[in-house]
Specification:
The protein is an alpha/beta fold. The chain has 9 helices and 36 strands. The chain has a 15-stranded parallel sheet that branches. The protein has a 7-stranded mixed sheet with strand order 3-2-1-4-7-6-8. It has a 5-stranded parallel sheet with strand order 12-15-17-19-22, with no helix packed on it. The chain is globular. 45% of the residues are buried.
Length: 416
Amino acid sequence: MSIVFFEDTSWKNFVPLSYTRSLFDLKIGSLTTFEHFNNKSSKFLTRQYLEDVTKERHPDNIVNKFEYNVDDIFINSLFIPLKSFFKKWSMKKKFLISSGDKILMGRIDKSDFEYLYESVVHDKKINSNRISTEMTDINDLDECGTLYSWPWDFIFHLKQILTSQLRLKNKVPNGIKVIGNNPVYVDKTSIIGEGTILDASDGGIYIGPQSTIYQSSINGPVHVGESSQVKPYSIVSNSYIGNNCRIAGEIDSSIILDYTNKSHLGYLGHCYVGEWVNIGANTVTSDLKMTYGTISMKVGNEKKDTKTIKLGSFFGDMSKTSIGTNIYCGMRIGVSSHIYGNIFNDVPSYVIYGKGIGSENAEMNISSSIEFQKRMMSRRNVNMSLGYETMMKTLFEITSSERKKYDVRSKRFTIR
């Protein structure tokens, strides 16, 4: 039996993060859905333009190119079932679990596999009425697992998620100051600077291989990945830091994916930051209104109340902020966009956003975007693959309507 992770058109709720990765590759706390199951024989169904980069991320797994197997279990990429629920249903020959119009999990007929395959790969809405496998609708999701429907779900539940994931064996070198009773794991190849405090009072702490924590305060639950640096006098609380990151200033209740730089003072709170992002010196994200009211975010053409009073911003891969950038609550910063000054609107992908300093916004030329990204990758001894470059070009075309909606045109960007 293999698990087949599939995504549906709800990926559009998670842009810009989901523009450059499949939903099963979004970190939920310190793990993706795929990593949560730890099923090495897993297969993946994703949008066609993401097929090559998904293969690069998962060289040992099959992406899109597989035949029907009667034993396979299909799982929605944003659904994490309870172990008991998964075990109970996986014993059945045929089944399909739904919640409203959302398919969560199932072992399906061949005709349903063919329909699901066609819908996912070609980014078509999955219509449950087209499914022939007998369906069981779940009214109370709490009895079967967790379904993540909105990007702010990842932030609102982050502390609870990280706490449950960071159940580690204690392993702390001598001479390191630890506060609290939750588990702390420091890899033997990592360096913890003198004066660093690891405070595990509210949750566990994991420091991965080859990472360096200079004199700083790490307040659990916190996960710091492999080969990352936390620079002197930083404060990191309730956060996930990926691999090969450079971190400084204050980080609170945030998820930061691989190869991202925040190397200077500034505040990043209740944010989700993609890969290869550069956060300029003294960039500050607001995560609380002065009125203490709930924060709204734009989803498609409508505003949705997130029902939380603490929420920062969502940064697409390869985005950059200039020095002194201030970003209001609940903003989306598009893929490969460069932003300046005060940001109080969502920023589309591939945009040089100068409105915040009195300049006109301009579309970023795709060749320039690729060149800039190759330069950044070379600093970490990474070569851009053909698949990644093709994905960038395809995404530039896909997001053209966003730029048109915001009246962003191709022109030379100048700072006034």
